Amino acid sequence: MSQFIFIAIAAGLIAFVGTPFTLVMAKRIGFISEPSVRRTHVAPMPLLGGVAIWAAFVVSLFIFGRGAEFRELISIVIGGTLISVVGLVDDRIGLGPRPKLIGQLAAGVILILGGVQARLFGTAWLDIPLTLFWIVGICNALNFMDNMDGLAAGVAAVASASFFMLAVLNGQILVASLAAALFGACLGFLVYNFQPALTFMGDTGSLLLGFMLAVLGIKLNFPGINKFSTWMVPIVVLGLAIFDTTLVTISRWRRRISIAHGGADHTSHRMARLGLSHRRVVLALYTVGAALGILALLMSRSTPLFANAMLGGLAALGLFLLWLLEEIQRQPAVARFGPDLRLTLIGGGEAMLPLLEGAMTISSITTVLITPSDDERAAFSPRRLRDCVSMMAEHPTAARAVMEGSVGFSTGALADQVVLAEAALKLRGKLMLTTAPGTTNITSEAALDALRHTDLIVIGGDLRENVLPTLGLSEVAQALRRSKRLRVLAHPDPKRALAEIERAAGPDLITHVITAEGMEGVEGTWQSVADLRQARQIAEALNRIWLMRTRVRGVPLPISGSNYG
Fold first, then answer.
1. Which residues pair with 482 in a beta bridge?
2. Which of 295, 293, 1 is nearest to 156 (CA)?
3. Are the C-beta atoms of 209 and 563 separated by less than 8 Å?
4. Per-residue pLDDT of the chain (565 residues; tens, 9 = 90+)
5. How far apart are the first and last CA of the chain?
6. What is the DSSP secondary-structure string of 133-153?
7. In the chain, where are the structural domains located?
């Protein structure tokens, strides 16, 4: 047992120490993953983390590994190195599906020549194709799982830990050594890859992880039980990756999209659509992987009847989840981020109403800031207030009837109407005056607190109504400028809107833009929608911005009107 512990520790230390070197090297030689429409990160990311995983795995094995199966070990290392090189080339220049497939098949052939292959049917013309199919399938399954910070490395670590326990219990030295090395390498790298990630493993790492897990599945055996049950155990251990690949394959086939196309349709993405944060999605999938490992352990120690019963139950559950997650994908892509997401809106004109509705779709804590003004053209109109209150009220029809029949709402000042609405009506959000009672230029502390203690600030609609008067308050502008939160402008003409905002309140207020389709801006800071009047499209854009933000470390950078046009 001490041998395996040394292997795991050595691999972990090598990955832990080596990953920063790959990070620096990637930046120096330009080995960077740039943000794009098909990628969810919004900042350039180093892409050599897989090299550290490979080095940790190989070096730890040859330093501490011992065993008589040297020929098999050499073929495994050579095959893993080849597939890592294929991934490295793909990360650098972008290989098509066919060259990647050829590389995976070549790695499989090296394994077979080294004596590592499936032995399910007992005949080479069936076992060899099965081996190649298994290698290619699991390689791509782990490659697919590499779609969120820390997901692929963590899932591989959990699966390798399961394989390690199974191998130790059955006295399989080579499998236990391989699993220990893979476990340590994944954990050492995960320190830098867990959300928010500092580096990516790329295909260099994900293909290697898939290859090694496939090898562990091939090599694992259980004396005394039938071959079918033996093969079911690694399938259950790797059930999460297999499930995700099956889900994506079926979904893209149904939509007539190539399996190699890519997209946000994986299990993790669909869980995020349910409102789970990035970190919760990843941790939940770790838990699922661990549960599958425990079930696999039980199957290996149980009677064939009980093992088959567990397998049947898992298959039924998997089919149900396939249907459920596909249904989730077919629903409009708007996620509620739970009751703790706080959103503050500064809007004006009729165009602010879709913004408010979209904001309330993803947040149950929505604050609307309203600034009284002596200028009728800049003031928040009584009609707009009634529209906002009706939208925010739990009983819209009753709220509108109260406002239309109340003397206070029809004749009182705007500030009084806001106070009355807050006091008399049950709202799902909050209306808040930005200025102290009886003033038009002294910012209230409550409004500043709302800006300081929020997660997302949305600005848009008719800028002259309410927006520019609010941003023109020096303390409001200062609070926005100092904020570490996202400040999103929603406007059909962002260049003009940014220029007006900068004239009224100075630069560095806006970090992201939602605008009409066809506008060009800075990739990663803008989202385009077909119709800014559609609340659901606004909600989807805010959803995407928020999800991208969860992947980035540091303070969001402001933008200016010069970035657009």
1. none
2. 293
3. no
4. 778 888 999 999 999 999 999 988 988 888 877 644 344 444 567 888 899 999 999 998 877 665 556 778 889 999 999 999 999 998 888 788 889 999 999 999 999 998 888 888 778 888 899 999 999 999 999 998 888 889 999 999 999 999 999 999 888 888 899 999 999 999 999 999 887 788 889 899 999 999 999 999 998 887 666 666 677 889 999 999 999 999 988 888 876 777 776 666 788 878 876 767 778 889 999 999 999 999 998 888 877 778 788 888 888 998 998 888 877 655 544 444 444 578 999 999 889 999 999 888 888 788 999 988 877 777 888 888 888 888 888 778 888 887 777 766 666 677 888 888 877 777 888 888 898 877 767 888 888 988 988 888 999 999 999 999 999 999 999 999 888 888 999 999 888 999 999 998 988 899 899 988 766 665 567 888 888 888 888 988 888 787 766 555 456 677 755 444 4
5. 64
6. HHHHHHHHHHHHHTTSTTHHH
7. 2-330, 342-563
For residue 380, give the nearest of 474, 297, 463 by alpha carbon.
Answer: 463
| Amino acid in position 170 | N
DSSP reduced 3-state for 516:
strand
Is 293 within 8 Å of 158 (Cβ atoms)?
yes
Residue 500 carries which side chain, given as an amino acid letter? E
CA distance 36 to 523: 7
Helix (H) or strand (E) holding 32: strand 32-33
Pairing relationship of beta strands 430-433 and 456-461 according to DSSP bridges: unpaired
CATH class of the domain whose range is 342-563 = alpha beta
What is 210-224 written as a DSSP string?
HHHHHHHHHH---TT
Alpha carbon distance 133, 412 (integer Å): 75
User: Is the pTM here over 0.70, yes or no?
Assistant: no
Checking phi first, is residue 223 left (phi over 0); if not, alpha (psi -120 to 50) or beta? beta
Q: Which residues contact 197 (CB under 8 A, 6 or more apart)?
A: 41, 45, 149, 150, 551
Instruction: With both helix axes pointing from N to C terminus, report the angle between 151-169 and 202-219 in degrees, rounded to the nearest 10.
Output: 20
The C-alpha atoms of residue 81 and residue 462 are separated, in whole angstroms, by: 59
Q: Are 147 and 263 in contact (CB under 8 A)?
A: no
